[in-house]
Amino acid sequence: MTFAAIAVAVCLASCMQASIGFGMGMLAAPVVALLEPELLPGTLIMSATVVTLMVVIRERESLDLRGTGWALVGRVPGTIAGALLLVWLPQRGLALLLATVVLGGVLFASLGWQPAPVRRNLATAGAASGLLGTATSIGGPPMAVVFSGAESAKVRGNLSAFFLVGSLMSIVALAATGKVHAGTAVVFVALVPAVILGYVVSRHVNRFLDRDRLRTVSIAVSTLGAVLLIGQQFL
């Protein structure tokens, strides 16, 4: 029953990621943290590599490798800091950090704040995404903010290219600190069909649910998950 609930959350999160370019962690992480916190962040980061690879292939003509490259420069120190933070932070602290990051991402998404995608902002967002993504599996909001002004295909393609390489960096860093192990890998493999199903569903959902409506639904679900996670830690 627990695995089924996680698989549904991962499927929906993969659909969201493939539709708007981010969201795997924002949507699925609070659910996983409530049910099987030991799977975080490794299982979700590995799942994200699958869906981002598929989106990069689909949106390859819209990629801007120069902008993505500057973001990845910032991702390197952020990834290292995130892996170290995960080693030092207790489980409760990690859960509260995760919930705070989700709510912060929701706030930025709701306000529509959009800094210019220049080198400094891209590198800064890449560093923040690396730290948060490696520590909590939620690295989407900082990058989504700087790429949000582009057309949908370009947003999805560039975010996915960044997260594909960035997720691989995070997996290496987590493995080096012992946070990725055989148990996480087994669950990841079992969740791959849910990830692929979410990607396939996204291609059909986008015909009926436009980007703005999907974003609204995603924000609402993410907020609910974060609030439930905070409530669990204090009850």
TrEMBL record:
<feature type="transmembrane region" description="Helical">
    <location>
        <begin position="69"/>
        <end position="88"/>
    </location>
</feature>
<dbReference type="Pfam" id="PF01925">
    <property type="entry name" value="TauE"/>
</dbReference>
<keyword id="KW-1133">Transmembrane helix</keyword>
<keyword id="KW-0813">Transport</keyword>
<feature type="transmembrane region" description="Helical">
    <location>
        <begin position="159"/>
        <end position="176"/>
    </location>
</feature>
<protein>
    <recommendedName>
        <fullName>Probable membrane transporter protein</fullName>
    </recommendedName>
</protein>
<keyword id="KW-0812">Transmembrane</keyword>
<keyword id="KW-1003">Cell membrane</keyword>
<dbReference type="InterPro" id="IPR002781">
    <property type="entry name" value="TM_pro_TauE-like"/>
</dbReference>
<dbReference type="InterPro" id="IPR052017">
    <property type="entry name" value="TSUP"/>
</dbReference>
<feature type="transmembrane region" description="Helical">
    <location>
        <begin position="39"/>
        <end position="57"/>
    </location>
</feature>
<dbReference type="GO" id="GO:0005886">
    <property type="term" value="C:plasma membrane"/>
</dbReference>
<feature type="transmembrane region" description="Helical">
    <location>
        <begin position="214"/>
        <end position="234"/>
    </location>
</feature>
<feature type="transmembrane region" description="Helical">
    <location>
        <begin position="182"/>
        <end position="202"/>
    </location>
</feature>
<comment type="similarity">
    <text>Belongs to the 4-toluene sulfonate uptake permease (TSUP) (TC 2.A.102) family.</text>
</comment>
<feature type="transmembrane region" description="Helical">
    <location>
        <begin position="94"/>
        <end position="113"/>
    </location>
</feature>
<keyword id="KW-0472">Membrane</keyword>
